[in-house]
Amino acid sequence: DEGATWTKITGHGLPTHTTGKWGLAIARSNPKRIYALIETGDGVPYNGQETDSGKLWRSDDGGENWKLVSYDRRMGGRTHYYFRVEVSPDNENEVHFLTNPYGRSTDGGQTLVGGGGPGGGGGGGGFGGSSPGGDNHDIWIDPTQPNRMAVANDAGVSLSVTRGQSWQRIQLPNGQIYHVTTDNQIPYYVYGNRQDGPSYRGPSRTGAGGGFGGGGGGGGGGFAGPIPRSTWIGIAGGESGWATPDPVDNNIIWSSASGSGSVGGIVEVFNLKTGQARNVEVWPENISGEIAANLKYRFVWTMPLTISPHDHNKVYVGSQFVHQTTDGGNSWQVISPDLTLNDKSRQGFSGGLTGDNIGVEYAGVVFAIAESPKEAET
Asked: pLDDT tens digits for 124-146?
């Protein structure tokens, strides 16, 4: 009755234990065909209770009865981050799944075929082969010409005119920048960290007149044009961190994080003259999958990094402590007590039915560091 009243269905082939996130898709060509992407515990006990196994259920009678058609975790992946299923409008057996990689089924969800290329982060434009990109979140299928599709992901948008068998990745003129810093040159350079990319450096203006603003006063003149993409260069580092030039020698750039966040306190020092980067990670331990309570140091996704305004050789980063180096990152010292509440009840298993302990999303951390410009070591 168009949503006026609802009947809750239990049993009838559906999971019987606790479930999490659901994704539903109804076939336009046959509305009695319904797909349910369901987050179960994959049979792993949760809070001492049994859980169901399975990923995709299907109903062929309008939702009255259901059957489990697939256990394939590639259909659901990292549940809280993406959990999207869609049916082609002209084929009830063609199903599309949006996770880190893109997946497609042509047999009613029983198997994934084609289009299941590697995932990963964002990328540039061009033809992406059988994969629209990584970290896929949403999909649109043309209801009148189902060969035409669009997928939105962390890289932007990808288009297909072959029902998802091949894709063209569209390079959008934007990006997600976590932090911005500048150096003290004239004209100055801008530094930032882009989602699904490294740290970058670019000019505030170019010799051709391109700049952030329009024309100056007095002489008139209009907008001088954009700063060319080619003037920006990668300077190591990573997506979620900081890129901070040495205030005395701007050829030396300190960057933090990686494509996986800060992990063990990742810090890289980039030398513009040589084009080389050196990894000087604070505590080089792979802690992916570990809970926060068991770690020596807790580095969050966007851990802070700052250079002392009094001594450019002194660099600070933060975990639950403040760490300091005075020798270019060859060694690090803890110079503070634990500055957090260190609440162990907030440092346990994360993610619910689908675990998500990726090593960078912790409570009880230092989020920002600033040294007084007037008084050293304060």
From this structure: 444 457 889 889 999 999 999 99
pTM: 0.85
What is the C-alpha separation between 136 and 232, in angstroms, rounded? 27
**DSSP classification of residue 23:** E
pLDDT in tens, 268-324: 999 999 999 999 999 988 888 889 999 999 998 889 999 999 999 999 999 999 999
Partners of 270 in the β-ladder: 253, 277
What is the C-alpha separation between 144 and 211, in angstroms, rounded? 45
The structure tokens 């001492």 sit at 48
Q: 87: which strand partners?
A: 95
Q: What is the CATH number of domain 21-170?
A: 2.130.10.10
Each residue of 239-263: b (16+ CB within 10 Å) or e? Answer: bbbbbbbbeeebebbbbbbbebbbb
DSSP state of 49: B
Instruction: Please state, in angstroms and rounded to a whole number, the distance separating the CA atoms of residues 238 and 157.
Output: 22
Where are the chain's structural domains?
21-170, 177-211+220-346
